[in-house]
């Protein structure tokens, strides 16, 4: 028989406990033990005892609500998955549940034994993945500490034997600083990865579960809405993975500048066309070229990645019906590329950190992102031998200018 899965139901209605117990009894191939409490405080104490594998938490708990319970338990560091039980199915409840740390939510009175089993199974698997990420972080920290200890020992030995002590100390301090920076980057990576992956994965899970409930032709609009949510979440996951992959390849020195000769205007128009599907309602990209010459010698793929990032950022951080100006210019000595938007702008206090990895300005924390895009853009530009600058006013927009030396 499969291992027993201990489930705690937190619900102030005993009838809901009986219904849930009956539904759980009808699940075949699984061995569940269902415990029940109707008290917010007793539930919190039971969670602290860590005797259960998963928690089903009702949205309404007398003077409290299930979101409060989940948020407090997650804040205290408990990693077993929470599934919210609610009386209504709407996107706002879904998003609130995911924000406080719930793995999934089920609509009371509508879920079947199959729905409950699937939600518990997926939530357990997701929680296991997050635990493995945390374990990886702890292993990385242990390695960095060991490396720091070794370097400290090397410093002590050099103090007694190396005539170039000061120079050696500077080099070792540099190495220690590099190790510390690497440790911080890896820790921030794990933190951001677990956070950024949780939201789209939870969206896919909840929408996939709800699609199965819509069986009639009258439900086509609802099905399509959840299909669109899944597509959007998968696209977001792909973007996040591409950012992490780009950073990894650059750290390993595997990104090279491979220039080719091509028509810059044709290329820019193609990029503009490809981005149309990513724009918000009413947004438009206005492209223009300055100068008679159109041929350049640049790395086409790196330039495409740079422009996709800047133009998609302009759309992301601008409202509907806004215009994005995209300009290319070729002079006798340089190639200038400018992307200007009418978006929210960058606070002055944040502008000095704009190209730092994982940095996000204080006015974009509610907009999804990893904080890697502009760091990747800057490094690509530098690999291509160019420079990047910007101007920004809060509430008025931002302009990025890329300059490359002309080689043809």
Structural features, described:
InterPro entries: CheY-like_superfamily (IPR011006), HATPase_C_sf (IPR036890), HATPase_dom (IPR003594), His_kinase_dom (IPR005467), HisK_dim/P_dom (IPR003661), HisK_dim/P_sf (IPR036097), Sensor_HK_Regulatory (IPR050736), Sig_transdc_His_kin-like_C (IPR004358). It catalyses: ATP + protein L-histidine = ADP + protein N-phospho-L-histidine. It comes from Pontibacter ruber. Its EC number is 2.7.13.3. GO terms for molecular function: ATP binding. With 408 residues, this protein is of the alpha/beta class. Among the domains are: 115 residues, Response regulator (Rossmann fold, 3-Layer(aba) Sandwich); 146 residues, Histidine kinase-like ATPase, C-terminal domain (Heat Shock Protein 90, 2-Layer Sandwich). The protein has ten helices and 14 strands. A five-stranded parallel beta sheet has the order 2-1-3-6-7, with helices on both faces. It has a five-stranded mixed beta sheet with strand order 9-11-12-14-13, with helices on one face. The protein has a two-stranded antiparallel ribbon with strand order 4-5. α5 runs antiparallel to α6. The protein is globular.
């Amino acid at each position: 028989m499969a291992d027993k899965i201990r489930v705690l139901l937190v619900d102030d209605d005993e009838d809901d406990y009986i219904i849930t117990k009956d539904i759980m009894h009808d699940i075949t191939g699984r061995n569940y033990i269902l415990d029940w409490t109707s008290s917010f405080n007793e539930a919190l104490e039971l969670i602290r005892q860590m005797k259960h594998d998963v928690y089903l938490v009702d949205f309404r708990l007398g003077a409290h609500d299930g979101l409060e319970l989940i948020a407090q338990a997650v804040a205290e560091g408990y990693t077993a998955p929470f599934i919210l039980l609610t009386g209504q199915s709407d996107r706002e409840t879904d998003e609130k549940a995911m924000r406080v740390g719930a793995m999934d939510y089920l609509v009371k009175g509508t879920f079947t034994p199959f729905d409950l089993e699937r939600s518990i199974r997926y939530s357990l698997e997701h929680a296991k993945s997050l635990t493995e990420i945390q374990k990886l972080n702890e292993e990385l920290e242990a390695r960095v500490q060991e490396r720091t200890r070794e370097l400290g020992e090397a410093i002590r030995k050099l103090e007694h034997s190396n005539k170039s002590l000061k120079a050696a100390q500077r080099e070792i301090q540099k190495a220690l600083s590099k190790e510390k920076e690497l440790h911080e980057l890896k820790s921030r990576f794990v933190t951001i990865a677990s956070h950024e992956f949780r939201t789209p994965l939870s969206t896919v899970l909840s929408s996939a579960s709800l699609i199965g409930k819509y069986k009639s032709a009258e439900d086509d609009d609802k099905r399509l809405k959840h299909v669109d949510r899944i597509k959007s979440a998968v696209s977001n996951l792909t973007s996040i993975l591409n950012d992490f992959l780009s950073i990894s390849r650059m750290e390993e020195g595997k990104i090279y500048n491979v220039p080719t000769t091509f028509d810059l205007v044709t290329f820019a128009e193609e990029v503009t066309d490809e981005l149309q599907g990513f724009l918000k309602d009413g947004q438009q990209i206005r492209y223009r070229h300055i100068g008679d010459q159109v041929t350049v010698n640049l790395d086409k793929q790196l330039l495409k990645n740079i422009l996709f990032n800047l133009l998609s950022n302009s759309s992301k951080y601008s409202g509907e019906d806004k215009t994005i100006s995209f300009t290319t210019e070729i002079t006798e000595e340089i190639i200038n590329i400018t992307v200007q938007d009418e978006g929210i702008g960058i606070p002055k206090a944040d502008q000095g950190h704009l190209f730092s990895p994982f940095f996000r300005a204080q006015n974009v924390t509610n907009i999804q992102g990893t904080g890697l895009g502009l760091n990747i853009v800057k490094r690509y530009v530098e690999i291509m031998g160019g420079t990047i600058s910007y101007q920004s006013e809060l509430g008025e927009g931002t302009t990025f200018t890329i300059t490359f030396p002309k080689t043809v």
